[in-house]
Specification:
- The chain is α/β, with parallel strands linked by helices.
- The chain has 2 domains: 220 residues, Alanine racemase (TIM Barrel); 100 residues, Lyase, Ornithine Decarboxylase, Chain A, domain 1 (Beta Barrel), CATH 2.40.37.
- Helix content is 27%, strand content 23%.
- It contains 11 helices and 20 strands.
- Strands 1, 10, 11, 14, 15, 16, 17, 18, 19 and 20 form a 10-stranded mixed sheet that branches. Strands 3-4-5-6-7-8 form a 6-stranded parallel sheet. Strands 2-9 form a two-stranded parallel ribbon.
- A hairpin with a 2-residue loop joins β15 and β16.
Length: 381
């Protein structure tokens, strides 16, 4: 789609920043493998864009949530080894084997189905045994690992390549539970050593920064590769070297002068207190800008914070640009997330207003918002 016809609201993806974030994380984990997480459309950054960039940098194993995510990337020629982090169902086994995916497993029904499909295809399927050390979501209890491995030994078409777990509290200041989990995982790995498991992996972004004992053989960074902090409670000062990869921008499509006391947008939840200059921007909850941010959001216009006013609608929102009267014009850029002049609005700021986390802000940006690649010279591509 050409620049003239695409949506005026865009997400700009700075690949040079992505590379620098990866280099920072790699520095912290040394020579261990990194399997970046690109699930949920690469945390809203564009899975195909991010996958191709990672593959170009030499990353050969990537982490996704679901079978469909991996298949979509493979069919778009983003060839890599894809580890599936979420539990799958036996009915998905044929596709997993056909596309060479590496699922996490925690039921014998799944291992049996995978082995059966692999045997029919004349292949061997590699899997990762998920152990629940405290997340309480998926995974087998540590005490069940020996019997589970014994069951898998009877399935020659199945190879237990990895042993994995996940932290529920690594991003919190109190690391006592996480340290207990690391020791528990270490004991399980030692007990399973005879099974020939190649890779032990547990560390997420928060653990890469604050729990070096969890790095084991491979790590699975997610939010940090996109330049966002896992939480405000990360102790390692190097977290402040992360650079946000995504900027979310739109443009002013209409300007109008209104009198004092004018009600704006659905429900007239906002009335002007003075004669005002109101800008319309083509971004709304259909693009991922939460309706709950209505009257509690500032966009950057000409380097100045301007309040969003009235209810955010599906496709359009209003911004009070009275302070820029005589300077602002139709077509001017308005920044939702990013920097303009000396001001910046961050995903963390929006998350704070909504009582949520930065993960939800960026993953919530809708598919209809084009992701535009910015190269190493920070030029739009």
């Amino acid at each position: 789609m050409s620049r003239r016809t695409r949506h005026l609201t865009t997400a700009r993806i700075h690949l040079a920043r992505l590379s620098r974030n990866l280099a920072l994380l790699q520095e912290m984990v040394g020579g261990r493998e990194m399997w970046p997480a690109i699930k949920a459309n690469a945390y809203g950054h564009g899975a195909e864009i991010v996958a191709r960039h990672l593959i170009g940098l030499g990353y050969r194993t990537l982490s996704v949530a679901h079978t469909a995510e991996a298949i979509a990337l493979i069919e778009r020629s983003a060839a890599a080894t894809y580890v599936l982090l979420s539990a799958a169902l036996p009915e998905q086994s044929a596709a997993i084997v056909a596309y060479g995916l590496e699922p996490s497993v925690c039921t014998t029904e799944m291992t049996d189905a995978l082995a059966g499909e692999a045997e029919k295809a004349g292949k061997q399927v590699a899997v990762h045994l998920m152990v629940d050390t405290g997340m309480g979501r998926v995974g087998i209890h540590p005490d069940e690992v020996p019997s589970f491995l014994e069951h898998c030994r009877a399935l020659p078409a199945l190879r237990i390549r990895g042993l994995m777990s996940h932290f529920p509290c690594a991003d919190q200041a109190d690391k006592s539970l996480s340290r207990e989990e690391i020791e528990q995982f270490r004991r399980v790995a030692e007990a399973a050593a005879a099974a020939g498991i190649e890779v032990r992996h547990m560390a997420n972004s928060a653990a890469i920064f604050d729990l070096p004992d969890s790095h084991f053989d491979a790590v699975r960074p997610g939010i940090a590769i996109y330049g966002l902090r896992p939480s405000r409670e990360i102790a390692n000062p190097r977290v402040h070297r992360l650079e946000p990869v995504l900027e979310w921008r739109t443009r002013i499509t209409f300007l109008k002068e209104v009198a004092a006391g004018t009600g704006l947008s659905y429900g007239h939840t906002f009335h002007t207190r003075r004669p005002s200059l109101i800008a319309t921007v083509p971004v709304g909850y259909g693009d991922g800008l939460s309706r709950n941010l209505s009257n509690n959001l500032e966009l950057l216009v000409r380097g100045r914070r301007c309040p969003q006013v009235g209810r955010i609608t599906m496709d359009q929102s209003l911004v009070d640009v009275t302070a820029l009267r005589g300077q602002v014009e139709q077509g001017d850029e308005a920044v939702i997330i990013g920097r303009q002049g000396g001001e910046e609005v961050t995903a963390d700021e929006l998350a704070g207003k909504l009582g949520t986390i930065n993960y939800e802000i960026v993953t919530g940006i809708a598919q209809r918002v084009p992701r535009l690649v910015v190269d190493t010279e920070d030029r739009e591509g």
